[in-house]
Amino acid sequence: MTIRLLPQTLINQIAAGEVVERPASAMKELVENAIDAGATRIDVVMKEGGRVLLSVTDDGCGMTSEEMELAIQRHATSKIPDEDLFNINTLGFRGEALPSIGSVSRMTITSRIESSENAWVIKVEGGHTSLPEPAAHPKGTRIEVRDLFFATPARLKFLKAPRTELTHGLDLLKRLAMCHPEISFTLSDGVRTLLKLPATHGDLFEALLERLRGIMGRDFAENAVPIEAERDNVRVSGHISLPTLNRGNNALQFFFVNGRPIKDKQLYGAIRGAYRDFLAHDRHPLIALFLELPPRAVDVNVHPAKAEVRFRDPQGVRGLIVSALRQALNGAGHMASTTVSHDTLSAMRPPTYEVDPRTAEMARAITSQNTSQGVGYYIPEGMREAAAAFQAPLNGLDAPPQANVQASSDQEMTQPPAQYPLGVARAQLHETYIIAQSGDAIIMVDQHAAHERLVYERIKTGVEESGVKRQGLLIPEVVELDLADADRLVARSEELEELGLVLENFGSGTVVVREVPAMLGSKVDVQGLVKDVADSLAEVDEAMSLKDKLMDVCGSMACHGSIRAGRRLSLDEMNALLREMEATPHSGQCKHGRPTYVELKLKDIERLFGRSG
Predict the structure, then answer these.
(1) DSSP character for 191?
(2) What is the pLDDT of residue 291?
(3) Does residue 142 surpass a pLDDT of 70?
(4) Domains (range + CATH), the chain
(5) What are the residues facing 227 on neighbouring strands?
(6) Distance of alpha carbon 297 from alpha carbon 496, whole angstroms
(7) Per-residue pLDDT averaged across 50-65, rounded?
(8) Shortest CA distance to 105 belongs to which of 142, 71, 150?
(9) How confident is the model over 521-538, as a mean pLDDT?
(10) How far is residue 27's CA from residue 187's CA, in Å, rounded to a whole number?
(11) What count of Cα atoms within 13 Å lies in the side-chain half-sphere of residue 474?
């Protein structure tokens, strides 16, 4: 077989196969060029998912006719001024993007620079180029791509339905818009506008959060914690959600490196590590993180579509992200997301009753008869007396077994509830929920979930600082387990001792427990505790760090040391729990990301009863 050079058209089509995977890929390349051109407004049109027409219009610097002729040549670019491939400070540096798109479509480029009296237009059809011609166009560039892949029909068979392709384009444009809040973006399908993001200005964090509100939703904007940290010339910023605002997938987790949207498994792993203490393994927070680092510290040319990067110091980057996120979550204190109260209020609906038609007809007949006789509405016999008794003032309150209502002391009643974020305890319902009153809200607390978080934080702090205090058992407890579980516990006995749990081997499939953490109290269920710890160790990944393993076990131990549902608390105990929650970070959610309390504002409650004016 004779070796030969491929024709230029075929070379461009091969390059298109790498760069232009689908219409959204072509759109991404064109939008990145518009951003690099200094545009303040970018309008995108995708008809039939971009297959029939893909149009990108910007008000950037534009091109001269000479630059337009060069732009459609392979390996022609303005993005590498010093010819250093590892010093990339722009988005679109791949020289084959425009010629590759033009080789598989009918592409028209119209552009004008500010100092020119007229614009120029050039056409590329299946790789064949026309000469530039004068045209009418405002400052900036408009690129129209029609009949994408008409020159490579085989590629058309791999495209999805127009709606699916449009969704991919919408997702990519949202990612590009996130890190450029100063630019206005729109996306249309040719009939209606699907995305409209006006430019936001002012403080960087405020402008960014406003842009994120338009993309990730109002709930995220209301429950986002700002992130900002720097180490070794690497800076991370952005916003993350409170743990109680989470999803079942990571679709709303976005990462950007030097303004470039990327997907990186290591960064997703860093997020899981940072939220390990707050979310179950199948729940995911909402994230928008922006990394800025020197161009030479990251290789952005390891993926044809620039969707992945390679860091020179990946462990350093991961460590910075984890520490920054944990510090921000610590600063959030006991806060829980507002979506908790919104969901609660949404679940509250006025009761509706089905009335028997015969009963309604009888009532109407009686009412009509009484009205004709000069009498008011019909009142059944005995109901008037019952209503009067119901409305009479209560001389005393004989609480049913499920309601623990206690009179507050004079001191507690005179203290303004507003001085405490979680208010003052007023009652306990079903021996499980604490009802508290603050200056402008009612707070309902799950006593078991709240105390479990408090105990967990105490154990974790003890491990990190000086170790957990232990108490010896008067009679050592023998626990029978599966052989594998027993071996696993014995192998981790030194680590468990740091948590205050001292045990040793006591034969095949059996361990003996001699000491337990002092904070768990004297009535701890040792059998249940050891079995839960064994289950936790069985679930953890062998590749996890020692600290992460210990934190997993801490969760099981905290559950056994917390106040159980069904235990009646005194008013002092309830208030003590509230005050400790206010002083403890992360007390707004349990270890699995569920809320420990719900706050209902009075204005929202009044709206439920139709009292809002």
Answers:
(1) S
(2) 93
(3) yes
(4) 8-197 (3.30.565.10), 204-332 (3.30.230.10), 401-613 (3.30.1540.20)
(5) 238
(6) 40
(7) 95
(8) 150
(9) 80
(10) 11
(11) 2
Q: What is the pLDDT of residue 550?
A: 55
- DSSP states of 302-357: SSTTS---EESSHHHHHHHHHHHHHHHHHHTTT---HHHHHHHHHH------PPPH
Q: Which residues contact 577 (CB under 8 A, 6 or more apart)?
A: 434, 445, 447, 450, 451, 454, 563, 569
**pLDDT score for 378:** 46
In this structure, are strands 253-257 and 470-480 parallel, antiparallel, or unpaired?
unpaired
Cβ pair 45, 2 in contact under 8 A: no
| The two three-digit tokens of residue 135, written as one number | 């045209």
What is the distance between the alpha carbons of residues 8 and 2, in angstroms, rounded to a whole number? Answer: 18
Task: Determine whether 16 is exposed, middle or buried from the number of CB atoms within 10 Å of its CB (0-12, 13-18, 19+).
Answer: buried
558, pLDDT greater than 70 = no
Question: Which of 582 and 592 is assigned the larger pLDDT?
Answer: 582
3-state secondary structure of 80: coil
What lies within 8 Å, CB to CB, of 298 at 6+ separation is: 257, 258, 309, 310, 311, 312
Distance CA 170, CA 180 (A): 16
Tokens linked to 87: 């010093």
- DSSP secondary structure code for residue 90 in this structure: S
Residue 102 tokens read as 């033009």
Dihedral of the alpha carbons of 54, 186, 189, 255, in degrees to the nearest 10: 80
* 3-state SS class at 495: helix
Question: What length is written for the chain?
Answer: 613
Q: How confident is the model at residue 397 (pLDDT cuts 50, 70, 90)?
A: very low
